[in-house]
Amino acid sequence: MTEITKESIIKQLKERGLKVTPQRLAIIEVLIEHRQLHPGARFVYEEAKKKKRGLSLSTVYATLGELSRHGIIKTLQFDQIENRYEGNLEQHINLICEKCKKILDYKVPNAVDQRRVAKKTGFSITDTRLEYYGYCRECLGEEGSKGGE
Amino acid sequence: MTEITKESIIKQLKERGLKVTPQRLAIIEVLIEHRQLHPGARFVYEEAKKKKRGLSLSTVYATLGELSRHGIIKTLQFDQIENRYEGNLEQHINLICEKCKKILDYKVPNAVDQRRVAKKTGFSITDTRLEYYGYCRECLGEEGSKGGE
DNA sequence: AGTCAATTAGGAACCATTCCGCATTACCAT
DNA sequence: ATGGTAATGCGGAATGGTTCCTAATTGACT
Fold it and tell me: Where in chain A is the domain with CATH 1.10.10.10?
């Protein structure tokens, strides 16, 4: 049920009293069509603009923020590269390629036990972020050396 | 061997042909004295300036970047809060309090097997980032509700 | 159709971080 | 100690993703 579909998102929007606008539909479609990309705001903007003329970047940010705030999608925040958005809300590890910036999902077989963390440290977990950085298969194959640039 | 000490850092600087300047010493001292804080650049700047008058923010950024680039410390990159720096290079999970922004280290008992990830996905891991967000014991205790803001 | 609050567009503002050119300095060999 | 030299430091401007602001528009519901 954590899989992202256009219908499920629309349903969730309505359930929460949020309006379903053409702008939002365009943005949602882009998110779904490029779910494997984990696209950033700029990318979503450029693509969604093709579907809905006059769309503004502010709207994209507002919408992505709204979806994220309601737990419909998840915002992956970065510093050096722009934030990315994903619809896969299951616990998993994001494999982030340093070269092509692609982000792959890796389903965690047996994750770290969050309950144990809470018990041992008194820390109450509300969200997790598990990321591995490195080089994806494609980028490794393209060139012999991967350390370069 | 991953523990951060002033001497070890100086040693590493010299080994790599980097100069040991008063500015850098001041910055390193701050990093060590506040290692549990996982301080940000601004904090380091404010504190280090007390030790070395005239220190500029650019220098702090440059030094932290240099230390990080050489693997002497690790940069924790964020978007909404400023980047933070830590000397603990062992694999661990950072517990980040949403309220006070404190960052605690949690030694991982049995981490996710990186080798398995590599084998299954062909992804070559160079760095990891494991973070749990939530509320630390202190912030949980201060108030009954933790969701508000 | 009418009402109202949510949403949108556009641009200014924000702010951590980086970049730039020049002055200063740590370090090594003499 | 001294001098040469490349690294480093400084200060301020620039960068760029994201947020904020306000007026105008538009869905959703009656």
Answer: 6-85
Q: How far apart are CA A1 and CA B46, in angstroms?
A: 48
Q: Quick check: B100 contacting A, CB < 8 Å?
A: no
CB within 8 A of A74, min separation 6: which ones?
A: A68, A85, A86, A87, A88, A89
B132–A131 C-beta distance less than 8 A: no
Tell the CATH topology of B91-142. Dna Ligase; domain 1 (3.30.1490)
Q: CA nearest A115 in B: which residue?
A: B132
pLDDT of residue B110 exceeding 70, the answer is no
| pLDDT confidence of residue A111 | 64
User: CB–CB of B44/B31 below 8 Å?
Assistant: yes
From-to residues of CATH 3.30.1490.190 in chain A: 91-142
| Fold classification of B6-85 (topology level) | Arc Repressor Mutant, subunit A (1.10.10)
d(CA B136, CA B130): 17
Q: What is the pTM of this model?
A: 0.84
Q: What are phi and psi of A75, to 5 degrees?
A: -95, 125
Q: Where does residue A20 fall: left (phi above 0), alpha (psi -120 to 50 degrees), or beta otherwise?
A: beta
- β-strands A124-135, A92-97: how paired? parallel
pLDDT per residue over B26-60, tens digit each?
Answer: 999 999 999 988 999 999 999 999 999 999 999 99
Which nucleotide has the shortest C1'-to-CA distance from A56?
C9
Rounded (10°) angle between helices A57-69 and A22-33: 70
Mean pLDDT of chain B: 89
Identify the segments of chain A with pLDDT beneath 50. Answer: 1, 145-149
Q: Which chain A residue has its CA at the smallest distance from B114's CA?
A: A132
- The C-alpha atoms of residue B131 and residue A125 are separated, in whole angstroms, by 10
d(CA A116, CA A106): 22
